[in-house]
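Thought: the user wants the 3D structure for the chain below. I'll pass the sequence to the structure tool as-is, report back what it returns, then summarize two notable features.
Action: structure_tool
Action Input:
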Amino acid sequence: MLHWHCLGIAADVLILRLPVLCCCRLLGLRFAFGHTVLLSGPVPDPSWQTVLVSVSLFVTQYWLSGILEQPTLGQNLGNTSIPILDTILASYALLNWALFDRTKQGIGMAALTAVCGPAIEMFLISKIGLYHYSHPVVLGVPTWIPWVYYCGGPAVGNLGRRVWHDLAVQHTQEQQQ
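Observation:
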């Protein structure tokens, strides 16, 4: 669970998370061109329905991270030290990538987002004191937070591809007039 310190009001983390995801995506704009599906050629431009489903699955994963944190706190996978919540959210994030991206660039962007997003949060928590998590593990953030960012990679990537496609179509139509 995330708690904001601004005016003592608890606020939804998506207010922060979506801009951070977009910033991480902008850091890797060079990946936006020439996406190729790992096994079968060029990436088709996603429909708006695909974009909405991908974004919805990301939001659902974010919601699950909050719902499942308390019940799984301190529980590990089998005889390992891997937290169960990390396992659930990592599987979910990889499934989202497999369903909605499947590109080398998508893996790179999701990984970049999974590193940069928590790094930005660590700064906002430790240096600015903007908010805090109920159960932080590493420098103010829980270990499962990178998986939430990873899951957001395909969602934001598909949104970017769809918007880019629509802008290109609009530009082509304007040029033909």
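Final Answer: Structure generated. The beta strands are 2-4, 36-37, 41-42, 131-133. Residues 3-14, 27-34 have pLDDT under 50 and may be disordered.
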